[in-house]
Amino acid sequence: MTPTKLTLSTSRDIPFNKLVLSQANVRRIKAGLSIEQLAEDIARRTLLQSLTVRPILDGDGNETGLYDVPVGGRRYRALELLVKQKRLARTAPVPCVIRTDGLAAEDSLAENLERAPLHPLDQFRAFQTLREAGLGDEDIAARFFVTPVVVRQRLRLVTVSPKLLDLYAEDQITLDQVMAFSVTSDHARQEQVWDSLVRAYNREPYYIRKLLTEGTVRAADKRVRFVGIEAYEAAGGVVQRDLFEPDGGGWLQDPALLDRLVAEKLAAVAETVRAEGWKWIEGAPDFPYGHTARMRRLIGTPIPLTEADQAERDQLQAEYDRLIEAHAGADAVPEEIERQVEEIGIALAAFDDRPLSFDPAEILRAGAFVSIDADGDLRVDRGYVRPEDEPVTDPVPVEAVATIPVVEPGMPVAEPGPANTEPPEEDEGLKPLPDRLVAELTAHRTLALRDALARAPDVAFLAVLHVLCLQAFYRSGADSALDITAHSPAFTVQPPGLADTAPAKAIDARHQTWLGQLPADPADLWDTLTGFDGDSQGALFAHCAALTVNAVREPWTRRGRALDHADRLARAVELDMAAAGWVPTVDTYLGRVTKARILDAVREAKGAETAQLIDHLRKPDMAREAERLLAGTGWLPDILRAPEPGPEPERAQEPPVDLPDYLTQAAE
């Protein structure tokens, strides 16, 4: 049987004033280009798609010469706008397809449902063709009523391997995954990463970006801020940037070049500082916490302000006081006044933070450290005397005279103890934490406990009294967390960034404040201390006592009762590690424990249902997702929490020490 040949609807040009918008058009909600934008597009390119119309009949079924427009309502509205703007004649011929069969509403529905949106890959290739024809991003964006950012994002797909684009065209890769691959232009690396993910569970865009940026340096790194991305790029460095996601400035692909630029800039600063006459200069991006512990710090004198500087400072102070007084009782301070007060405060702080002058004879035996602070700014610490540079005939340093040495915050860096292997990913049980992780976590706790104890002079006094009584009456000080002989114990295991934590900075600032109040000559120390009031003596006592705290747990040491005492101190000062700034991240905890512990943490902080949402993930993905879920919850592992009071554990090998009742009651 011969199939029936199709006959297409006829088409012809119909004057615009003979067309009437049909009520059968199914599109009611505005979407896509506005009528104004479509009118501009028609004005630029004329009408690219015909209207579909139906003859309007009179009561007898005869054609009236008018035509209903059920398909192409937005085009009709755009033409109508051009007529109103007198940019198109009312009788201008409009290409139309004339339909007589079926229903008008059916035609409108079919025309809208069967229209396939343009694939982003086709849009990218079209934009690329226009760019090759000489059009800029702004021109392309204006012609298609999109933002230049959209144009640049689509054109960024040119950096993706053709192999991956073919997979995208076949719907084997999502657009989000393709955008993640565009973070680098290395096609070979893109394909290598995809091949590694073909049989993997996790193909999330964030994970693709993570794999593609391994071995790079984030633009937020303090070394980058110190050198400047402009200097890095001027030296030939390449920066990866992500147009689709916030990237904080991108990733630097040449860490070796960055390190060289940092070393050169630090060396140049070091030479400038060396010209001041210091015996030695050490420069590095950062130094370990406690690197100055064995050195004596010179006490400098702020360089006096010149008359002009003093007059300017007095003027700023007067204006600052006037603004504060004028708005003291106001419910709301205008934003402009707040900004002005803040600017004046910064200027006053600059006057107060003046360079120090030192004794020329001391400069000849002292040195300085040149480094980068946590914000990426230059840091120069002057005036440190090494033990071997101390003259034999000089007076004994302050640290040796005091009953409890006022040492530089921190401690010397010791060789790390034996490292333990990380728990295997397949380990599903709540196994004990790795020894090294325990040491690192309790190093954080020790610093926080030192800082908290320094804020509680009464507790610090009791703690020192406790250990002194143990040594005086029981010939033992091993049952206390305070290592009073007295010295500041070293961290045998030091986690990264320890010197930049809030407790470390607070201890250092407090130490420098006290150092400025003590005399340069140790012979004057006693008279100075006796001149302090009781509160000052207690605060200084608490600071010195806090420097001796040692609550680090290490597998090669046995300090059971001392660690029990550390728990008592934590309860007494109401230690809160979350408030001290510790947060559970992949690096600090989650990436270094078993999956069971990760799930246990999420379950405790967010509930069992939330934990079930991630229990199917591989450990790296689970740790990353858990970090996001735990952010802001204040969750802490048990080892960092202030323990609840409980009975003392039995230790047959260490007979209990009986303290007088009044001391026991005070300790409780």
Automatic annotation (TrEMBL):
This is ParB/RepB/Spo0J family partition protein. Residues 12-113 form the ParB-like N-terminal domain. InterPro entries: Chromosome_partition/occlusion, ParB/Sulfiredoxin_sf, ParB_N. The lineage of its organism: Bacteria, Pseudomonadati, Pseudomonadota, Alphaproteobacteria, Rhodospirillales. It comes from Phaeospirillum tilakii. Residues 409-431, 637-668 are annotated as: Disordered. Pfam families: ParB_N (PF02195).
